[in-house]
Design a protein that fits this description.
Layout (H helix, E strand, L loop, with lengths): L12 H16 L4 E2 L1 H8 L3 H7 L13 E2 H11 L6 E6 L3 H8 L8 E8 L8 E2 L2 E5 L3 H7 L4 E4 L3 H13 L4 E4 L12 E4 L2 H14 L1
The structure holds nicotinamide-adenine-dinucleotide (NAD).
Nicotinamide-adenine-dinucleotide binds next to helix 5, strand 4 and helix 7.
């Protein structure tokens, strides 16, 4: 059975994190081939680690040449479900929600923001890029119309659970939560907490040790 069949592979989290970083790097890379040594140097890891990571995708490198970058992009694209375009919605049209809605890099990753919602009457009807900010009452209709499975929470922490409940109530399958608080959802719903502060704390920790 192909290792790229998403239903049958379990990639350990640290490997998955590295594969994601390689993938976004390859999307911008112009070279046709890349060796494990070059990639290892770029990401400050060992070449053996790179080779081990690639055992999770259906690709092998050529001796003295390296890995074929377009094939890596294709295989990693399959791993991350890039072949299927997922429509996503954002709740919260503030600083972060607006920035995400305008981010042009999502489509390369197989993701399209189809709507942004807010509960502030002053924001409803205003535009974020090409999207009009919609009232929360329109969520159900949008989710059905665009077959949306992924919702993004960009509301203040005190409203995060309310936003999560709303998303779960309209049948959202996965939540990307930017609010710095845990949300309580049924086990069947996937939650990815994007804690931006953890990145800066890691940097500060490393700086402190240097
Ligand atoms: N701005 C950042 O760089 C950043 C970084 C990391 C995390 N975050 C987190 O992301 C979230 C949003 O941050 P921000 O800076 O965009 O805040 P913001 O105040 O600029 O925007 C929040 C938006 O959510 C709306 N809102 C509030 N309650 C709502 C509800 N129940 N339903 C729908 N909309 C609602 C508000 O009207 C507002 O437009 C926060 O939880 C914040 O901690 C922000």
């Amino acid at each position: 059975m192909s290792k790229t069949n998403k239903s049958f592979i379990h990639v350990p989290k640290p490997t998955l994190e590295r594969l994601k970083r390689y993938y976004t790097y390859f999307l911008q890379l112009e070279a046709e081939y890349i060796s494990s040594e070059e990639l290892a140097e770029k990401f400050n890891i060992k070449p053996e680690q790179v080779r081990k990571d690639f055992t999770y995708v259906n690709i092998t490198g050529k001796p003295k040449v390296g890995y074929h970058v377009p094939s890596l992009i294709k295989e990693l694209g399959l791993l991350f479900g890039k072949e299927v375009l997922e429509n996503i919605i954002i709740i919260g049209a503030g600083n972060l929600g607006s920035a995400l809605a305008k981010y042009s890099g999502f489509e390369k990753l197989g993701v399209k923001v189809v709507a942004i919602f807010d509960n502030d009457p002053k924001k409803i009807g205003s535009f974020v890029g090409e999207l009009a900010v919609l009232p929360l009452s329109a969520i159900e209709r949008v989710v059905k119309r665009f077959k949306v499975k992924i919702g993004v929470i960009c509301v203040p922490e005190e409203s995060a659970q309310e936003a999560a409940n709303l998303l779960v109530g309209v049948g959202i399958k996965a939540i990307w939560n930017f609010a710095p608080v845990p949300i309580d959802v049924p086990e069947t719903v996937i939650v990815e907490n994007q804690d931006i502060s953890s990145g800066i704390l890691t940097i500060k920790h490393i700086l402190d040790k240097k």
